[in-house]
Amino acid sequence: MLAVVTRFAVATVVVVGLVVLRKRKLQRLQARIIYHRDKDLGRRFGLDVGGTLGKLVYLEKADAATELGDVHTFMLANTSYSKSSMRDADMALSLPGGQVHFVRFETSKLEGVVEFVRHRCFHRDIRAIPCTGGGAFKFSKLFEDHVGITLEKCDELACLIQGLGFVMRHVPDECYTFKNVALNHQGMGEATKTIVHTPTSELYPFLLVNIGSGVSILKVTSATEYSRVSGTSLGGGTYLGLCKLLSKYKSFDEAMVASIAGDSNAVDMTVGDIYGGNYTQFNLSADTLASSFGKMGTKYEPKSGVKDEDVARSLLIMITTNIGQVAYLSAQRSDTQRIYFCGNFLRQNEIASRQLAYAIDYWSKSKMQAQFFHHEGFFGALGALLTHNQDLL
Ligand SMILES: Nc1ncnc2c1ncn2[C@@H]1O[C@H](COP(=O)(O)OP(=O)(O)OP(=O)(O)O)[C@@H](O)[C@H]1O
Ligand SMILES: CC(C)(CO)[C@@H](O)C(=O)NCCC(=O)O
């Protein structure tokens, strides 16, 4: 009898214990789900992974600054972990809902970034990140397998338009142009950088030329309506690729610095080189660029007397002149007067923007105007961020 009672008591204790344990486990699980729902930091990010660069924006909410402590630590560590120039601290946007920060990294280093996230256990608070650009497709498995983060795919052009519209509405001095485009074909001249405020009633339609690795050209007819009217494979990737191939410069920033000092006439052939002066019949002055890199074709030893900085400058002028012409022709075809240029090719690249301004003014006989943005390379990532932060709109 005693044995039966003992067995019954033990069984009861075990069953009760199991029920309690199960309940606790359930509670823990519930708590974990709530914790994740509350701390799903992925919604504070927008990622744009392109052919050359990855762009990350994150929102630090005004009412919950401390919550993002780890994210801040990660960003600061990660940016010095790649390159200081990749951090755009001075570009942060202050909005009523919080601050938006911007970070850039090389797409080729993405695996390193993922490994860093895993190493720091940073991914524990992130289930999904909205992501745009080709990398949203190409790297979704990498994120899923290594850190269990889902990349929520967003279309790159839709995000570009969304981010662009947001910046145009919220950042008062975002757009600028060059007035009195008295430049020559080398992008030299006295044109003055001027902030432009265009009222929304006069904004549409316009042409948007996004110069990334390649170039996409969109006709934008309203805040949400656009079509991709053209594109060219001769873009920022071409410039960087040819620079690395033909000169000693190993990075975009090095090439930019060098191109300021370079003289493209050492490499290019001008109308003057061919005519010995102006080609007056068709109003082509002697200093007009006749053939990019043309001089190199006439020399037995092309590199003699040519400096790497001349090559960097000439490449910059070649790529930019071509994009300017394609943009002008596209604007004509699409019946738009204003052309906006964006994309990271224009980052800290005043020679290129001045040259584009000149090209548009020159080809259109001053009927069209080129405009630029201070946050030129982050619209896609911003658009991705906005998919979960409609309140910011
Ligand atoms: N730090 C940098 N490292 C490399 N390229 C840079 C850097 N800064 C500016 N660039 C220029 O920006 C270009 C990439 O621009 P962007 O980030 O807009 O395009 P992407 O998203 O990589 O390309 P795509 O949209 O065609 O996939 C490079 O090809 C280069 O010309
Ligand atoms: C392929 C994309 C859209 C990727 O961003 C871009 O690099 C691009 O527009 N390239 C030019 C493709 C074309 O010739 O239309």
TrEMBL record:
Q: What keywords are annotated for this sequence in UniProt? A: ATP-binding, Coenzyme A biosynthesis, Cytoplasm, Kinase, Membrane, Nucleotide-binding, Transferase, Transmembrane, Transmembrane helix
**The keyword Iron appears for this protein:** no
Q: Name one GO molecular function term.
A: ATP binding
Q: In which pathway does it act?
A: Cofactor biosynthesis; coenzyme A biosynthesis; CoA from (R)-pantothenate: step 1/5
Q: Which family does it belong to?
A: Belongs to the type II pantothenate kinase family.
State the GO CC annotations.
Answer: cytosol; nucleus
Q: Where are the transmembrane segments?
A: 6-22
Q: Does the keyword Transcription apply?
A: no
Against PANTHER family, the record matches this protein to: FUMBLE, PANTOTHENATE KINASE
* Protein name in UniProt: pantothenate kinase
Show the NCBIfam families listed in the entry. Answer: panK_eukar
Q: From what superkingdom does this record's organism come?
A: Eukaryota
Q: What is its EC number?
A: 2.7.1.33
Q: Which InterPro entries match?
A: ATPase_NBD, Type_II_PanK
User: What Pfam families would the database entry show?
Assistant: Fumble
Q: Where in the cell is it found?
A: Cytoplasm
- GO biological process terms held by the UniProt record: coenzyme A biosynthetic process
> Main localization of the protein?
cytoplasm
Q: Which Gene3D superfamilies match?
A: 3.30.420.40, 3.30.420.510
